[in-house]
């Protein structure tokens, strides 16, 4: 009886040590994440070693795993930049990005987990300053927004190239101009719209007038051709034809043939 506690104590200690070792050695990586293995007794992170994927892993208890999210992430950025004429413009943008999973070891060694602040944010701000500085406030506010958005994306993509980061897209959510400039642009756009509307009505009226003129000219030309083709002989033949048709009507008439200045038949009475 006295020996059992002495034997049981070492077993309890060993079990506790095993539990501690297992707790230190067991690592679970969530879906959409990857782990970088840091070897404490080695050279740290091996950049060429494949990262740990989602699931359960066992590692040496003296090592540790640095977790990285590999899913697409988004950054909301508000920037104040200058237009081509020196006016301050506020740009609200959203960037979609994710680290390249296979290169997480290299990303960790060279940039660390705060790669967002070290690479992506400075790149977007630099690209926005460069691109917006080539445009006027009016272009930023209206016609060139899509082009500016694409240029900022391309400029940022060049900067983060070979940085083990994949930039998926950049969207311009809003462009805020100084109130006085915005009002002036809106007035100008309204005047241009009214001018375009007036020009449209003017062109429509001109086309309608041209249509009426062409129709009138066509009728005049038709009458002139018809008048030139109607000789006295044709008129007499047409008159005779009309008289014959009238004479065939059931209504009583008196037809005098050979009367009148033109020699055409005369129709007297309609009873």
From TrEMBL:
Keyword Transmembrane: yes
Biological process according to GO: proteolysis
Band domain mapped to chain residues: 25-189
Entry annotated with the keyword Ligase: no
Membrane-spanning segments: 7-27
Entry membrane topology: Single-pass membrane protein
UniProt GO MF annotations: peptidase activity
SMART domains with a match to the protein in the record: PHB
Cell compartments where the protein resides: Membrane
Keywords recorded for this protein, A-Z: Hydrolase, Membrane, Protease, Transmembrane, Transmembrane helix
GO CC aspect terms: membrane
SUPFAM superfamilies linked: Band 7/SPFH domain
Primary subcellular site in the record, as a coarse category: membrane
InterPro entries associated with the record: Band_7 (IPR001107), Band_7/SPFH_dom_sf (IPR036013), Prohibitin (IPR000163)
Identification of the protein by name: Regulator of protease activity HflC, stomatin/prohibitin superfamily
């Amino acid at each position: 009886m006295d020996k059992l506690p002495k034997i049981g104590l070492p077993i309890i200690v060993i079990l506790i040590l095993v539990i501690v070792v297992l707790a230190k050695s067991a690592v679970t990586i969530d879906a959409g994440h990857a782990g970088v293995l840091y070897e404490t007794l080695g050279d740290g992170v091996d950049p060429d070693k494949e990262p740990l994927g989602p699931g359960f892993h066992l590692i040496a208890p003296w090592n540790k795993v640095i977790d990285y999210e590999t899913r697409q992430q988004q950054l909301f950025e508000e920037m104040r930049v200058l237009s081509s004429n020196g006016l301050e413009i506020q740009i609200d943008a959203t960037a979609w990005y994710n680290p390249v999973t296979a290169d997480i070891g290299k990303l960790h060694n060279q940039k660390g987990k705060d790669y967002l602040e070290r690479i992506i944010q400075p790149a977007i701000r630099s690209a926005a300053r460069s691109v917006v500085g080539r445009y006027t406030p009016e272009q930023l506010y209206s016609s060139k927004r899509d082009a500016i958005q694409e240029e900022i994306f391309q400029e940022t993509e060049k900067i983060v190239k070979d940085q083990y980061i994949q930039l998926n897209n950049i969207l311009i959510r809003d462009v805020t101009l100084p109130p006085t400039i915005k009002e002036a642009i809106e007035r100008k756009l309204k005047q241009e719209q009214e001018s375009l509307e007036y020009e449209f009505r003017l062109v429509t009226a001109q086309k309608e007038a041209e249509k009426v003129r062409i129709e009138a000219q066509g009728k005049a030309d038709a009458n002139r051709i018809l008048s030139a083709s109607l000789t006295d002989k044709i008129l007499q033949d047409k008159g005779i034809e009309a008289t014959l048709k009238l004479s065939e009507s059931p209504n009583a008439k008196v037809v005098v043939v050979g009367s009148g200045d033109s020699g055409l038949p005369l129709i007297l009475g309609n009873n």
